[in-house]
Amino acid sequence: MLNSYPKLRLMLVKSTIFHQVARLTGFVSIITIAAQIMNKMKLLLTILLMFGTAQLLAGNHESIEISDVVMPKVPSVSPTAAIYLTITNTGKSKVALLDASTNVAHHTMIHQSKVENGVAKMKHVDKLEIESGKSLKFVPGGYHIMLMGIDKGLITKPFEVHLTFEQDIKESFTVTP
Ligand SMILES: [Cu+2]
């Protein structure tokens, strides 16, 4: 009986140390988990910020507005068609249209109709500048997007036209025949 008392004390001491260690390690693991959560949140925040910045940069290029898109009906056998539209530059700097492309025609070009010596002619346009705050109207007898080599049947469904401006600015719009 006399010997059992120190044993009990030792057991109590051991138990106390165990609990303290457990409490300490438990606390440590909470810190670790908290740190991990913080790191994940930081990563998430970084991703969100990066995405936000990308969105903002993309937003800058959306200073180009496309409106009044019209493609007059042509006979189904016609290998060509013209698209008219209005391009508005709502940005602070000048933009320059360089090219148009679609997947419904073999060639998509920017044309300008002109009457020279009483003869209607069409000329390819390399570059069309639009000043800040200005609109450029593509109308019959003037500028148009020319589709050449239209694949039969494709033109009955809505399709995308992609415009390329200087400084690699891209803008797309849908044409609904
Ligand atoms: Cu043309």
UniProtKB/TrEMBL annotation:
Q: Which InterPro entries match?
A: LpqE-like, Lxx211020-like, PCuAC_sf
The alphabetical list of record keywords is: Membrane, Transmembrane, Transmembrane helix
Q: Where are the transmembrane segments?
A: 21-37
- Please name the Pfam families in this protein's record: PCuAC (PF04314)
Q: What is this protein called?
A: Copper chaperone PCu(A)C
Kindly list the organism's lineage.
Bacteria, Pseudomonadati, Pseudomonadota, Gammaproteobacteria, Oceanospirillales
